[in-house]
Amino acid sequence: MKQNVTELYGSLVFNDAVMRDKLPKDIYKALKKTIENSTHLELDVANAVAVAMKEWAVEHGATHFTHWFQPMTGFTAEKHDSFISPVGNGEVIMDFSGKELIKGEPDASSFPSGGLRATFEARGYTAWDPTSPAFIKDRTLYIPTAFCSYSGEALDKKTPLLRSMEALNREATKILHLLGNTEVTGVSTTVGPEQEYFLIDKEAFKKRRDLIFTGRTLLGAMPPKGQEMEDHYFGALKPRVAEYMHDLDKELWKLGIPAKTKHNEVAPSQHELAPVFDTTNVAVDHNQLTMEIMKKVAEKHGFVCLLHEKPFDGINGSGKHNNWSMTTNQGDNLLDPGKTPADNIQFLVFLMAVIKAVDEYADLMRLSAASAGNDHRLGANEAPPAIVSIFLGEELTEVLKSIENDTFFNEQGRVPMETGATVLPHFYKDTTDRNRTSPFAFTGNKFEFRMLGSAINVAGPNIVLNTAVAEALSQFYEELSGQEDMEKAVHELVKRAIVKHKKVIFNGNGYTDEWVAEAEKRGLYNLKSTPDVLPVFKDPKNVKLFTKHGIFTESEIDSRYEILLENYSKTIHIEALTLLDMLKHDFLPAVSKFSDKVSKEAMQKKSIDESLSVASEKKLLQLCSESMDKLYDMAEELAADVTKAESMEELDQARFYHDEILVKMEDIRAIADKVEEYIPSELMPYPSYSDMLFYV
Ligand code: ADP
Ligand code: MG
């Protein structure tokens, strides 16, 4: 095992250095051209790449290859084929062709398609995405691919993501040229996702069916100590956790995933990992891999890694922060304010485009963060509210205000601007304090979208961001093209845009009730739950956005909407059944045993001395008996509702799961958790919150 980190890093990746080393020069050049300009790849080039890839993979111990894709399940999918090819005489050679590299045909009929693929043409196909490097894992060569139906409809998360990156590239490059920055030939978006997770002991996990089946606890009283002491956040790592993190880093580095930061989070047993940012497409693939490797390495260390957004009630849940920016092919970050007035013009146009995009498509942004798991976080006092707003910081807000009011901004404050002056204010990087309560915050040279849940594939939010910003840029292009005095035109454009979109800017505390009231006055969306937000996908304005930029066709939107709804209902369905199962098989029998024990003790006392008090036993028996009666009735009602839900459809069904079933589950939990406080540890049928959260 190599120990040197620089040697270890990327050692299992078919990256640029390996390609340069292994490929004939002309083939390397042709492939680079394809990667950089998304041009068509000739079969002879693909064949040569396949041979080099196979040789490299076999050298590194691989025996199989797989097309690796991201179907609508939210997980990644793979189907392994070995390299062996019989050559007669019972012998084989290791073989891999350009055709096998470029295209695969997984039997895809059981992946969700939302009605896109009729069963008679159930075979989708996977197509190599050369912009994300291939890698080796578990003796298999992994080839990142897009997954489509034979009629070309996207069945995955990568295809629309690549389309959205292309749309942004097109619009951003166009406007940069208009602004005089003609050197730039391409713009890509960059993402750095910060990932939160819980680690709990594997033995404890195995005893809780709720964690096994649903990823979250459906029952469980709060421990005497929660997170109120705030002693866990950035606290010293426990040795076992430190070992895990070390091992995790190493596994990620081998795959060329630039894991950078690790620390304890707010809740007990909660941690975070952040990589250095990358091109969006690669960052998305890496985040999917990171989540998978987190779970795998946890197993090795006797842990289970929980990625659910809310594994423990009453304890902070887990999110993911999507740091996002745009960068030119020359490496300039377009959200970096820069130091010259010309830089500033460019910066202001791109900044304003993001503000406009988020204001006009706040509903889609919210949609992109919606899931049954994340519903437990958004709007609670730990995650940003369900309302999408933008934090800009004092200085930048002042700059925009000065443009709006035609006053000149300088370090001392605002001074009146001379009439006719067209010079844009000069300012530096924002230095104000970070606002941790904002769902979408400008943090110096990037935006941080903080609404996402920990388990989500970050493709979704980035599809929305890229597309909405591309649309804003395309509108700005129309407004600016043909203008003589570009500085003046930009100034006027920013002024118009800020008047229109300033309602989405909010620098205050997003966790307060005042903000909820204020946001309503401003006319901002407050879409609280997944069933509330899903219908916005089909809103004509949003359909128009996606179809105009070629991200989704109408039928792709319909299918995705259906999949999201179904996924939501299924999730709650499984949760309800799991809760019933635990009540009937674990919890109620435990309460019954407890009652039995208490009554035996009371009788024993009485048999020793008739005058001894059994008041406390009586109280306990009463609590148990009343709770059991209630829980039996409620369980029956819940079961009846679940049956009722099965005959419902689409949005009605999802709403019913949200409004009726989830509420009943919470009522059941409240009663059960009260009794749990009294049940002796040895009678508890599964590990308690204390056992899980404080014994790692
Ligand atoms: P924090 O938000 O915790 O203070 P940082 O600001 O250092 O941490 O960065 C958080 C994440 O943002 C990291 O993953 C980092 O790589 C990423 N990041 C930094 N710059 C950019 C950028 N231009 N585009 C996208 N992500 C970025
Ligand atoms: Mg952050």
pLDDT under 50 segments (min length 5)?
A: 414-423
Cofactors, ions and other ligands in the entry: adenosine-5'-diphosphate, magnesium ion
Number of strands: 19
The first-to-last residue Cα distance is: 28 Å
User: What is the overall shape?
Assistant: globular
Beta-strand fraction estimate? 5-15%
What's the helical proportion of residues?
A: 40-55%
Largest sheet: 9 strands, mixed
Task: Compute the number of helices.
Answer: 22
- Compute the average pLDDT: 91
Structural class: alpha+beta
Q: C-alpha Rg, in Å?
A: 28 Å
**Quaternary status:** single chain
Structural account:
The protein has 696 residues and is α+β, with helices and mostly antiparallel strands. The chain is 48% helix and 14% strand. A hairpin with a 2-residue loop joins β7 (135-137) and β8 (140-148). It binds adenosine-5'-diphosphate (ADP) and magnesium ion. Adenosine-5'-diphosphate binds at residues 190-192, 194, 274-277, 323-325, 333, 443, 445-446. The site of magnesium ion has 3 residues, from loops.
Key terms for this structure?
9-stranded mixed beta sheet, alpha+beta, binds magnesium ion, 22 helices, 696 residues, binds adenosine-5'-diphosphate, globular
